[in-house]
C-alpha cells in the first residue's frame, strides 16, 4: 500500500484540518457510487479510508511516522541479527504462534478495529516473514521453512445503512465454500477493511492457507438517498397539514420520529434532523435531510377546487 500522506495528497506537516479537508474532497471523488464503471474504485476507496484512519488518529500517525506501523496500520517487526535474546518467541514445545489447523469461528470489527474469536490448539508455526523480509514463509518447530501459503482473497460485504449504524451479525460465504459469521460493530463506515487470517486460498504446496480481506460496502437503500455522510428523503405532507401545520412521522435508521411541520410550509422545503445520518469520520453521524412533498387529497373536492379558483382570482 502507498504512503498514507501520498494517498491523501498532503505533506507530513499537515494539521488535522488539512487531513480532514483532503479526505472529504477525495472521498467524494473516489467513492464507488461515483465510479460504478471502474472495477478498481473499491480498492482505491478502501486505500483512502485506511490512510485516513492512520493519519487522523494522533497515536497511529505517530507510530507510522516513527516506523512502528506500516501503511496498512500493521506493526513493523523489529530487526534481529540472530535468534539470541531477540529472536522469535518460544513456547514449551518450540516456536509458538499461529496453528495452521486452528478453526476460526467468528470475527467482529468496527471503528476500533478487528477482533476474532477462535477455537483450536496453539503451537505449530509462527509467521516470521515480516521479521526477516522474505515474504510469508514460516519456520516450523522442527527447523527449516514450510512451503509458501496460499493466495489471499478479497471479499466485498454489502451492508444496509441500518446495519452499519446499529451493528449486526452477517454470514459470509467464502469462495472455498466455508460459511463464517462476522459481527459488524455499531458505527462501521463504508470502506472499512478487515483481515481474516487463514481464510484465503489453500496452499498448492501443502503450506498454510492465505488470508481473506473483507471490505464493507453500503447497499442501496429503498427510502434514503446518500449524500456523503448525510441522507436525503422525501416526505409526503397532505395539503391541509402543509397549510395549517401538523406533526408527521419521519422514518430514520433508528426508528421513526415526529417532525413538526409549521403552518404554510411550501413543497420543497427541507428540514434537517441532526445526527440521523450515516457514521462519519469524527465518530458521530451525519444528518437526515427531509424534503417536503405536498400531496393533494385522494378524492376530488368541489369545495377545494372552488377555494383554489377564488385564491387564483384574488392573486390575479
From TrEMBL:
* Database matches in Pfam families: DnaJ (PF00226), DnaJ_C (PF01556)
Q: Note the coiled coil stretches, chain numbering.
A: none
Composition bias, Basic and acidic residues: 54-77
Q: Name one GO molecular function term.
A: unfolded protein binding
Specify the J domain's residue ranges: 3-68
Keywords for the protein's UniProt record, in alphabetical order? Chaperone
Q: Which SMART domains match?
A: DnaJ (SM00271)
Q: Which CDD domains match?
A: DnaJ, DnaJ_C
Domain of life from the UniProt record:
Bacteria
Biological process (GO) annotations?
A: protein refolding
Q: List the residue ranges of the region (Disordered).
A: 51-89, 167-192
**GO cellular component terms listed in the entry, alphabetical order:** cytoplasm
Gene3D superfamilies registered for this protein in UniProt? DnaJ domain, Urease metallochaperone UreE, N-terminal domain
Question: Do you know which PANTHER family this protein is assigned to?
Answer: DNAJ HOMOLOG 1, MITOCHONDRIAL-RELATED (PTHR43096:SF52)
Q: What is this protein called?
A: DnaJ-class molecular chaperone
- Organism of origin is Xanthobacter flavus
Amino acid at each position: 500500500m502507498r504512503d498514507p500522506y501520498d494517498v491523501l495528497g498532503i505533506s507530513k506537516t499537515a494539521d488535522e484540518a488539512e487531513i480532514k479537508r483532503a479526505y472529504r474532497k477525495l472521498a467524494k471523488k473516489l467513492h464507488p457510487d461515483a465510479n460504478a464503471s471502474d472495477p478498481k474504485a473499491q480498492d482505491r476507496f478502501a486505500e483512502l479510508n485506511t490512510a485516513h484512519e492512520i493519519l487522523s488518529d494522533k497515536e497511529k500517525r505517530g507510530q507510522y511516522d516513527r516506523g512502528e506501523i506500516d501503511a496498512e496500520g500493521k506493526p513493523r517487526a523489529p530487526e534481529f541479527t540472530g535468534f539470541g535474546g531477540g529472536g522469535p518467541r518460544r513456547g514449551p514445545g518450540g516456536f509458538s504462534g499461529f496453528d495452521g489447523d486452528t478453526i476460526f469461528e467468528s470475527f467482529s470489527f468496527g471503528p476500533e478495529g478487528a477482533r476474532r474469536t477462535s477455537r483450536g490448539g496453539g503451537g505449530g508455526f509462527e509467521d516470521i516473514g515480516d521479521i526477516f523480509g522474505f515474504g510469508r514463509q514460516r519456520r516450523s518447530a522442527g527447523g527449516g521453512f514450510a512451503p509458501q501459503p496460499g493466495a489471499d482473497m478479497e471479499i466485498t460485504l454489502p451492508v444496509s445503512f441500518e446495519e452499519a449504524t446499529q451493528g449486526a451479525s452477517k454470514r459470509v460465504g467464502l469462495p472455498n465454500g466455508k460459511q463464517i459469521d462476522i459481527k459488524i460493530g455499531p458505527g462501521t463506515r463504508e470502506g472499512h477493511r478487515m483481515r481474516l487470517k487463514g481464510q484465503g486460498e489453500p496452499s498448492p504446496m501443502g503450506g498454510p492457507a492465505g488470508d481473506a480481506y473483507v471490505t464493507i460496502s453500503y447497499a442501496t437503500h429503498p427510502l434514503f438517498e446518500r449524500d456523503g455522510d448525510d441522507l436525503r428523503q422525501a416526505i409526503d405532507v397532505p395539503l391541509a397539514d402543509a397549510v395549517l401545520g401538523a406533526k408527521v412521522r419521519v422514518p430514520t435508521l433508528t426508528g421513526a420520529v415526529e417532525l413538526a411541520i409549521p403552518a404554510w410550509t411550501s413543497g420543497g422545503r427541507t428540514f434537517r434532523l441532526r445526527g440521523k445520518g450515516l457514521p462519519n469520520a469524527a465518530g458521530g453521524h451525519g444528518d437526515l435531510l427531509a424534503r417536503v412533498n405536498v400531496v393533494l387529497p385522494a378524492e376530488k373536492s368541489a369545495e377545494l377546487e372552488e377555494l383554489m379558483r377564488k385564491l387564483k382570482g384574488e392573486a390575479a
